[in-house]
Amino acid sequence: MPNPFRKVYTRKELEFFAFFRKVKLFEKLNEKELEEFIPFVHLREYKQNEVVFFRNDPGQALYIIQSGMVELNLDLQENFEPLAFAKRYIAIGVNALLLESERVYNAVVRSEESWLYVIPQVNILEIFKYKPSIQAKMMTALAEIYDENTKNLFNAYRTHIGLFSIGDAYMKTFQSREEE
User: Fold this and answer.
1) Distances in Å between the alpha carbon of 64 and those of 36, 44, 128, 133?
2) Mean model confidence pLDDT for the chain
């Protein structure tokens, strides 16, 4: 017999949960935990070549790619070296989970248009303050992402001792979850 006191979610909420469960940072959260984010998630359209954020900007929001492609790159003197091309289900600017952090790369939309979910850092930190279990799960996911980045970096270095493309290391980390 179904529990008459159990919350019934709308179709839109269930679609939100299904999408966010495919994002590494959110995959360990249950429906009740994901529900905490709903009031703070904003869907924003970006156009081709529009900057999402610059390196050294404060990490004031987390971005999740709903559609389109975003290039992550490093500015080196007058040039930009691509690190990765992030697509659907990829979170960028993940250091927004860390207080007083700065962006370590630039993020620029490369598809004709891209839709990104934006979650302000202030709201994430507020959820963490009152829901430490959510913070624990998301910080574990963040540690796993950073661990994967480190492994990819060292593997790329071992493969091309001394001379290697940092983009080779980051490309593997930011592959769309659909491609796996």
Assistant:
1) 16, 10, 18, 21
2) 89
